[in-house]
Amino acid sequence: MSTAGFNSQNGTGTGQTYTNGPSQNPVALQQPPGVGYGMNHQPAYNPMQTKVLGPPSPALYASGPYQPVPPGPQLGSYPPPPAQPLLTRPPIGVLPSHTPPQSASPGPGPRQAQATPPAQATPPPPAVTSTSYYTGPPAWQYAAPRGPAPNHVNPAAAAPPHMSHGSAQPPGPGAPPTSIHGYPQPGTAPPPMNPPPPHTYQPNRPAYGPPPTAPPAGPPGATGTPPPPKVDAQSWGAASSARPPTEPDTQEGDVECPGDVAGNGPQAPNSYNHVDNRMAGAAQPGPPGRHLGHYPSLPPGYQNTLAPPPSSLHPALQAATQPYIQGPQPYQQPGGPGPDQLSPSMAAMSLQSGTPEALRVVNLLQERNLLPPAPVPAPTPCLTQDLQKLNCSPEVFRCTLTSIPQTQSLLNKAKLPLGLLLHPFKDLSQLPVVTSSTIVRCRSCRTYINPFVSFLDQRRWKCNLCYRVNDVPEEFMYNPVSRSYGEPHKRPEVQNATIEFIAPSEYMLRPPQPAVYLFVLDVSHNAVETGYLSVFCQSLLDNINALPGDSRTKVGFITFDSTIHFYNLQEGLSQPQMLIVSDIEDIFLPTPDSLLVNLNECKELVQDLLKSLPNLFEKTMETQSALGSALQAAFKLLSPTGGRMSVFQTQLPNLGVGALQSREDPNQRASAKDVQHLSPATDFYKKLALDCSGQQVAVDLFLLSAQYCDLASLGCISRFSAGSVYYYPSYHHQHNPAQVERFQRDLKRYLTRKIGFEAVMRIRCTKGLSIHTFHGNFFVRSTDLLSLPNVNPDAGFAVQMSIEENLDDMQVVSFQAALLYTSSKGERRIRVHTMCLPVVSSLSDVFAGADVQAVTGLLACMAVDRSVTSSLSDARDAMTNAAIDSLSSYRQSALTIQQPGLLAPACLRLFPLYILALLKQKAFRTGTSTRLDERVFAMYQLKYQPLAFAMLMIHPALYRLDDLSDEGALNINERTIPQPRVLQLSVEKLSREGAFLMDAGLVMYLWIGRNCHQNFLSQVLGVSSYAAVPEKLCLLPELDTAESQRTRALVSWLRDQRPFFPSLHIIRDESQLKPHFMQNMIEDRTESALSYYEFLLHLQQQISK
Ligand SMILES: [Zn+2]
Fold first, then answer.
1. How many angstroms separate the alpha carbon of residue 940 from the centre of ligand 1?
2. Residue 463 sits in a domain of what CATH number?
3. Separation of 447 CA from ligand 1 center, angstroms?
4. Per-residue model confidence as pLDDT tens digits over 170-202
5. Same domain, 661 and 736
6. How far is the CA of 816 from the centre of ligand 1 (A)?
7. Are residues 724 and 580 in the same domain?
8. Which of 764, 946, 990, 1042 makes the best surface tag, with the fewest CB within 10 Å?
9. From start to end residue, where is composition biased (Low complexity) (predicted)?
């Protein structure tokens, strides 16, 4: 047995990975409702009368922080408008007002940008708390006793102690007691909704829809204080069950069904855009549903909902009896009705009918061929069909253990981490959208009503998270899908585990923000050399009409090298005006009102700018990069509205605030015992990111560089502001066509994909379970509230959980993720996902429900944190021990018949292979030369990618391509997609006569064997011989042959499965990239790493100790 343990785990969550900064409470920082949000620039940064478009009188400009655009060689190609010359001299007369009051050194004298970087005028924080944001040592003590885990927290980080689910951590200073998705403390009154702005909400407006087909059925709802006969005494709501409802008592209940609106058939991810479009014309204020005024018929998402049953039975009876009318009901639990009624007999389902496949004993040392022929599917939770049919898709919501252990001690025995993996904003082909003036939620814990609640009768429902009994609001009695009355349990909210609400005004703290996009572009010499700027400008020109937004959409541009350049795009100008601020130590905005402009009104100017930008800096010799100042300027520009900042950087920032120095020693890449510098060198980027988060600004970083850029430091700007990081190592417009293509494709997706603004996500779980550590890009605002200034459909999240109270009397537990965001059309929306899982009491059942991919994905996140807070070798040991501990526990406690060998339950048979794959993954490997930035990027990806894509990075898929056939092929849109089987990652599986495709997520390799069949060479690659395969080939030629079509169909189908674009490299034995291909042969031995078989022997040895 190992002793070190993957000191991970489900302990008492000491650590939140990201702590709450002292003053970070975006809600608190927001302006109150009704306050204008678009125009109130801070006067401090408004030194100029921005309405003045003409050339300012020279006399007005003095030596301020401005510099006129030099007509010099590097910028001279930007023609000044004849009548409106670019800024000339800064004014003399009004000098004081040009200096931002905050300026620490409002030196009146002219300051030149080219001056040597002031010696840290903005001093870095005294003690660089390099690991401060990783404070939460994931409490990874397997088998740790419950109770506070050893505190590894870096004292400097001052992380607030972890709070469990029930003990609400006070939000940051100034936070309202109840924020959006308010989570009241037990015993407190239900949170008052944020009072709606008076002009947007008319609670008593009569309903448009058909009136109820029957009068309200009697008195139950009338009193508003249902007697909850069987409410769990311990449930939080018990004390407050008699409170009056907080929601306005409205009779309306419009349901918007976008699929129906748009026609039939599965709706594309933008299905709700149809709704948006319809909304766009409607008056902005007020719940949009009110303008619809009718109940649409069934959208595709509802097609399989049951027809309304004969309503002769009382609905409560129906609910109670339907699934089990035939069967025994041995589960009358002390909890009374509720989940128990819905829950299956786990005991009956799991083991009584013989050993399920998941528990089939596999001797790993003997069974070599463990990979299924097709990608590994997610396990199905052991629930009754009725429940499982309603359950959330595993693509959105996955749990490492699909059977939840009843107690923490049982979980500790299993030695597997408990956690969730989420892809909450995933593009969905079908998404029911509901518009309702009343969103029905538990009055105690604020859970949204969902398919796993139970109805005590027509008028009362019991929360599946806290067990409080709630009233059914009157308007919920009407089912818009079946157009009948008295069927609350048939409402779409109760029939769909994934659903979206258009939120009424109480979900807004301010009017929904417009879509605002600010692009911050590196235009230094290095940047121009890479050639990225023209690709970017062309891509934005091509997609400018596809940017998500509406008539309010705003855009702006900032470029920078050693100075910061702004662009006045005010409507009415004949050309864009460039404004240069050379005082990078004291950055402020010239003409704040004309830098972010309405896209529709100023589109021509924007297009002009995009066309001229690449030439503008063509001959620049400026090598310095004042990225930090550019980010500060961009933050100031976006602060009043919030929005998205897209930053393109090509080198290490080396001037002004946030300047960095190279920390990588290339000679140590392979030989160092442990990898240094995984944590940031400065907290400048994290602090700025938190400021951004507070103002609803997210920063996406595109790093295009051949040299070390210290991604560990720069990346913080995106991680804590809920942005994304894109990395294109060795990007060059001529030398690296594969990267260029990837960049182009990624940009197209990035510019046009859906986006949500000013978002928060709350994850709730059934009482007794507690969420602690979070993984992904966000800022944890309070215990379970993630602040996401932007949310995009490609972002994944993970959380770790522990079991705080025994789940003895529960058959099932539920998890609910609610994402509140502003759509690009300015609607407030809430997307809710609810997952239900069974609770089990035996260790065998826990193992049987293990989801090996989810376990691996979560362990990868934990190992990333561990690498930074402790060390890479520590993280590697912990991963190995995770495999040892769980298999050891299985052998000792779950296996009834002992036998020799290294034994695993079938559901975990891939666990050692995946762990070995992680050890060999770029993020964690040792002994192989790995660039620090590439390693850090791999770590980011592991934490940020949705599980399906992270798994490809960990364990690539290998296919043989030279013998593709149509056997078993998919047929999609009349295209035939071959489905070759997935091969083990071993050189054994290669053959010199073949051609093999390795899909590693972000990159694909097509390896051509030296003696590859002539047929494949000519019919697919269009070459006459092996020697004629070009050295750098990244495209499959479009040949009119069956072989070519099959091959291209497979490759493009694989690419279509993911939101990013993997580049394809066609390689021969002599290719430079061959080592990259070979490094992914995980099962083989390398100089520095064990083969799979050796690794298994190592595990066995440790287990039998
Ligand atoms: Zn509740």
1. 35
2. 2.30.30.380
3. 5
4. 333 333 333 333 333 333 333 333 333 333 223
5. yes
6. 11
7. yes
8. 1042
9. 9-21, 110-119, 149-162
Q: How far is the CA of 411 from the centre of ligand 1 (A)?
A: 25
Span from the CA of 166 to the centroid of ligand 1 (angstroms) = 12
Distance 443 CA to ligand 1 centre (A): 7
Around ion ligand 1, residues with a beta carbon closer than 5 Å are 442, 444-445, 447, 463, 465-466, 468
The pLDDT of residue 747: 97
Are 459 and 595 in a shared domain? no
How many domains, in total, are found in the chain?
3
Please indicate, yes or no, if residue 594 is contained in any of the structural domains: yes
Q: What is the pLDDT of residue 214?
A: 36
Domain-located, residue 520? yes
Instruction: Compute, in angstroms, the gap from residue 55 CA to the centroid of ligand 1.
Output: 62
pLDDT tens digits, residue range 890-911? 999 888 777 889 999 999 999 9
545 and 441 share one domain? no
More confident residue, 217 or 875: 875
What is the CA(123)–ligand 1 centre distance, in A? 48
In angstroms, what is the span from residue 463 Cα to ligand 1's centroid? 5
Of the three residues 704, 735, 753, the one that is the final residue of a domain is 753
Compute the Cα dihedral for 1040, 1043, 1047, 1052 and give only its sign.
positive
Residue 721 alpha carbon to ligand 1 centre in Å: 30
The predicted-structure confidence for 7-45, as pLDDT tens digits, reads as follows: 333 333 333 333 333 333 333 333 333 322 333 333 332
- Select from 1051, 1056, 1024 the least CA-distant residue to 1038: 1051
What's the pLDDT score for residue 674? 81
Q: Is residue 36 domain-resident? A: no
807: three-class secondary structure by DSSP: coil
Residue 365, Cβ neighbours under 10 Å: how many? 15
CA 227–ligand 1 middle distance (angstroms)? 16
Are 709 and 596 members of one domain?
A: yes
- Say which amino acid occupies 1000: A
C-alpha 467 to ligand 1 mean position (Å): 6
Q: What's the CA gap between 799 and 772, in Å, rounded?
A: 7
Mean of the per-residue pLDDT values for the chain?
75
Residue 537 Cα to ligand 1 midpoint, Å, equals 50
pTM above 0.85, yes or no: no
Structural domain that includes position 692: 516-667+685-753
Task: Supply 985's token pair.
Answer: 């990652």
CA of 304 to the centre of ligand 1 (A): 28
Whether residues 491 and 520 share a domain: the answer is: no
Same domain membership, residue 533 and residue 489: no
Cα of 446 from ligand 1 centre, angstroms: 6
Burial group, residue 974, by CB count within 10 angstroms (0-12, 13-18, 19+): exposed
Say if residue 441 is in the same domain as residue 479.
yes
- Measured in Å, residue 222 CA sits from the centre of ligand 1 at 21
Distance 418 CA to ligand 1 centre (A): 22
CA 441 / ligand 1 centre spacing (Å)? 8
Note the Cα 944 to chain centre separation in Å. Answer: 6
Q: What is the CATH number of the domain that holds 1053?
A: 3.40.20.10
Q: Who contacts 771 (Cβ-Cβ below 8 Å, separation ≥6)?
A: 13, 165, 420, 763, 765, 783, 784, 799, 800, 801
Tell me which residue of 285, 302, 684 sits closest to 512, measured CA to CA: 285
Of 725, 753, 781, which residue sits at a domain end? 753
What's the 803 CA to ligand 1 centre distance in angstroms?
18
- The alpha carbon of 296 and the centre of ligand 1 are apart by a number of angstroms equal to 30
What distance in angstroms lies between residue 464's CA and the mean position of ligand 1's atoms? Answer: 6
State the CATH number of the domain containing residue 701. Answer: 3.40.50.410
Centroid of ligand 1 to alpha carbon of 84 (angstroms): 63
Q: For residue range 1059-1074, list pLDDT tens digits in order.
A: 899 999 999 988 999 9
**Cα angle 345, 346, 347; round to 5:** 95
How many CA atoms lie less than 13 Å away from 280 in the CB half-sphere? 15
Residue 895 domain-assigned (yes or no)? no
